[in-house]
Design a protein that fits this description.
Elements lengths: L3 H12 L3 E2 L2 H11 L6 H15 L20 E2 L8 H6 L15 H14 L4 H6 L4 H9 L18 H22 L7 H35 L3 H16 L8 H19 L9 H4 L1 H9 L5 H17 L6 H6 L8 E5 L11 H13 L5 E6 L5 H15 L3 E4 H10 L4 H4 L3 E2 L4 E2 L4 E11 H9 L24 H33 L3 H4 L3 H6 L10 E9 L1 H17 L5 H9 L6 H9 L9 H19 L8 E6 L4 H7 L28 H9 L14 E4 L7 H16 L4 E6 L2 H9 L8 E3 L4 E3 L5 H9 L2 E2 L3
Parallel strand pairs: 1-2, 3-4, 4-5, 8-9, 9-10, 11-12, 11-15
Antiparallel strand pairs: 5-12, 6-7, 13-14
Helix pairs in contact: 1-14, 2-3, 3-9, 8-9, 9-10, 11-14, 14-16, 16-17, 17-30, 20-21, 21-27, 24-27, 31-32
Length: 785
């Protein structure tokens, strides 16, 4: 059970209205105005340091872990150097828009309008736009593709937090200073390296002073505090903030506070997403075990500290424009922490802190951080059953990832065996902590739109524009292989557009928005004297996503059956029906829905199509190089982009109506899986998950009645083990009654704490768009295991 402190902090979190803060934009803009003549990287460091020096610091009642993103309880910062036009266009709409509503006063809106005038022509977004081709812009406009990092910072980083706890910022500063002294001015690239090191020292000193501000504040509050108990807590907070993050952490409380300070600064530096907490049960365990052994801490006190951290991470939110607020609704920041897994020798390392973290998830019920459990054949049975009980409580956490598939993937991507065994994941994307700049979300391909373009010879029927390639009039496609080849050609074309556009985006980020402080926690950046944007990391990858796999596969199976095998309708006739959204053709639509084979039911005739499409997509993506010296990776994961892409896509041959969401991840089409959960995992496992180098995501949904006791948890655990034995990469679950979700739609005020698993993240149900809510409700609700 959560303590009274945690209950009150959690209620404060629920009561806080998400808001926009102008504070960071104001201070940072002032710094850049005064930094004329400095290099871009030094401007970034000076700007960060000034923000940390001048932003409001506050300590809320009852907090044990301190440090806030803004002066507001749940505030989002504005980073105009990345993008401001979307914010400007929506300034008056934020409080009432469809998704991720944000409060902002009239005075704050006017101040932002004035600040944005300074940034005209200077932002990442504007400079990227100037480099995009017209074909790429049309693809973005019509929903064939997206472009990640267009107007925001780039995420998917697992910083070297163990290094921080071991060395402190003083240790990192010593490494940087040594490199600065050793860099000869006449060496190749010396000017850039020296600039990086000098900027790094400015940033480090700014962060140390930031923590000292909290130490002084805690001391002042302690002097005024009437309660002896709270006064003692504030005095301890002051001592901790004088120690960390400048110096190594000495105990569990200091380790968590040091971790949080640095994690928070990363979000102040550039408002990123997917800054991962990594293998938190491994690098915090030595502090936890020693404190318990030496009677400095009880297990219950450790749990409360973790729950304070969980609440702090959920406070973090990010501004997205209207499109991305609907595509990623629910304020996800993808702050994933790992539990379980193996060590460098391949031995399972589940420990008592791993168990405690699962208990924290079940008690505090926050949406962040998301937890992923690394499963291997030696994962203890009691740990799996505990994880299943937590999932059954309805939080959608943890997700499960498969060491047996992911470790071999990391070897294929170039990691050593010891590194591969230390992998972490974001939603599903694996990387080596502290060594990788893994740019997930480089762009999404709309598979539903690809089949629509084939039916119309490259023209988007919703806009009338030529968006895809000319693959021939439908009547010219004489056989199913011709038709499938045309679809794959549209996919190839879309992937090429993303590659071209994202390369331009990477170039602009490296020139205009280097992240000097975050780069210090990617080990090779210090040695190379380069930021991660300049290719300083050891492993560099960018990712292209395929969205709507099951919608595409079911559509291909339907075309093969009704057009080429049974001749019920020609392609031209089918296209006329689709363009009318099945108006007057409901009987025909029902035939497509019920008589054509569907992926997700262990049917080889359709599952083989999925395998073929996936193999082509992986070959197309993974043969391309990114600008930082690595490769592009393929991924089958939609987050909530399948709902947005569905709104931008007409009816499809599987019987899906115009505007309805596409399928998500590698999951079957909503409601099409009729052979139970085992039928789903057998179908999905036929995809070569090992070849999808950045991962696949499978969602499943169960009724509350399916998981009622220990016997059910054992069956649930067996289902996961079986899927992974068959070669699956990842699986996650919702355990919630559809009736509960419908009640939450009609009476949201009664369900403020209701959490659901969306796609790679959990969110408060009431913070999702109506389309995403409906899509979760429409997923097949399995009644039995």
């Amino acid at each position: 059970m959560a303590t009274e402190r945690i209950k009150r902090l959690y209620q404060d979190l629920l009561d806080a209205r998400p808001s926009i803060s102008v504070e960071r934009a104001r201070i940072y803009t002032e710094a850049i105005r005064d930094a004329g003549g400095m290099s871009v990287i030094m401007q970034r460091a000076v700007g960060l340091s000034k923000v940390l020096k001048e932003k409001e610091v506050r300590i809320n009642d009852r907090e044990l872990i301190v440090g806030s993103l803004t002066e507001k309880e749940r505030g989002a910062i504005v980073t105009p150097e990345f993008g401001w036009r979307g914010i400007l266009a929506e300034l008056d709409l934020f409080p009432a828009r469809e998704a991720d509503r944000l409060e902002i006063s009239k005075e704050e809106r006017e101040e932002l309008r004035a600040l944005f005038r300074f940034w005209k022509g200077k932002s990442v977004e504007e400079n990227v736009d100037s480099l995009l081709s017209r074909r790429a812009q049309r693809a973005l406009k019509t929903g064939l593709t997206t472009l990640g990092g267009h107007s925001t910072s780039l995420g998917n980083i697992t910083p070297d937090y163990p290094m921080l706890l071991r060395d402190g910022l003083d240790g990192i500063r010593a490494r940087v200073s040594k490199r600065l002294r050793e860099t000869r001015a006449d060496c190749p690239g010396a000017i850039e390296k020296i600039d990086f090191y000098r900027a790094a020292l400015v940033a480090i000193d700014g962060v140390i002073r930031f923590a000292e501000r909290y130490a002084r504040l805690a001391g002042r509050l302690a002097g005024k505090e009437a309660s002896p108990e709270r006064r003692g807590e504030l005095e301890r907070i002051a001592r901790i903030c004088r120690q960390v993050p400048r110096l190594p952490a000495r105990d569990f409380h200091e380790a968590i506070q040091s971790l949080w300070f640095i994690h928070l600064v990363f979000h102040i530096e550039s408002s990123p997403h997917a800054i991962l907490l990594g293998r938190i049960d491994q690098y915090l365990y030595p502090f936890y075990e020693r404190d318990l052994r030496e009677n400095r801490l009880t297990r219950e006190e450790a749990k409360e500290l973790l729950e304070c951290l969980w609440i702090k991470t959920t406070e973090l939110i990010k501004i997205q424009d209207d499109f991305y607020s609907r595509a990623f609704s629910g304020f996800p920041l993808f702050q994933v922490a790992m539990v379980g897994g193996v060590d460098g020798d391949g031995d399972d390392v589940t420990n008592d802190l791993s168990h405690l973290i699962l208990e924290v998830v079940g008690d505090v019920r926050t949406t962040q951080p998301s937890i992923s459990l690394r499963y291997n054949q030696r994962t203890p049975d009691d740990f799996m059953r505990k994880a299943c009980r937590v999932v059954a409580s309805g939080v959608g956490i943890p997700a499960f990832v498969n060491d047996g598939v992911i470790i071999p993937k990391m070897l294929r991507r170039g990691a050593t065996l010891e590194e591969a065994r230390d992998y972490v994941t974001n939603c599903i994307e694996p990387e080596i902590p502290g060594m990788t700049d893994s740019r997930a979300h480089s762009g999404y391909v709309n598979f539903g739109k690809c089949i629509e373009l084939v039916m119309n010879n490259g023209i988007d029927p919703l806009s009338g524009e030529r968006v895809g390639v000319e693959t021939g009039e439908p009547r010219s496609l004489r056989g199913f292989d011709d038709f499938l080849g045309a679809v794959l050609e549209q996919i190839r074309f879309a992937v090429g557009l993303i590659e071209q556009s994202y390369n331009a985006c990477e170039l602009v980020h490296s020139r205009l928005a280097p992240e000097v402080f975050l780069s210090l926690f990617i080990s090779d950046c210090i040695e190379s004297g380069k930021t991660r944007q300049a290719g300083g990391a050891r492993y560099n990858h960018s990712t292209i996503f395929g969205t709507g796999l099951a919608t595409l596969v079911d559509s291909l199976a339907a075309v093969r059956k009704v057009v080429y095998e049974e001749g019920i309708v020609g392609l031209d006739g089918l296209n006329r029906i689709l363009c009318k959204d099945f108006a007057g053709e409901e009987r025909f639509r029902q035939m497509l829905l019920n008589r054509c084979p569907k992926y997700g039911n262990d049917l080889d005739e359709v599952d083989s199509l999925a395998r073929r499409v996936v193999r082509f997509f992986c070959e197309t993506v993974q043969s391309r190089n990114c600008l930082r010296g690595g490769t592009y990776l393929a991924e089958l994961h939609s987050v909530t982009m399948h709902a947005i892409f569905g709104k931008m896509c007409g009816a499809t041959p599987d019987g899906r109506r115009k505007g309805y969401p596409l399928s998500d991840g590698v999951s079957p089409v909503q409601g099409a899986d009729r052979a139970g959960p085992t039928g789903v995992i057998k179908s999905v496992a036929k995809i070569d998950h090992l070849n999808v180098l950045n991962g696949t995501l499978l969602n499943q949904k169960f009724s509350l009645g399916a998981l009622k006791g220990e016997a059910d948890y054992e069956k649930f655990s067996s289902l996961i083990r079986t899927y992974f034995a068959l070669g699956g990469h990842h699986v996650q679950f919702n355990v919630v009654a559809g009736e509960t979700l419908r009640k939450a739609q009609s009476r949201p005020e009664e369900f403020r704490s209701l959490i659901v698993r969306v796609a790679g993240y959990s969110a408060f149900f009431n913070e999702l768009t109506r389309e995403v809510q409906d899509e979760i409700i429409d997923r097949t609700e399995h009644q039995t295991l």
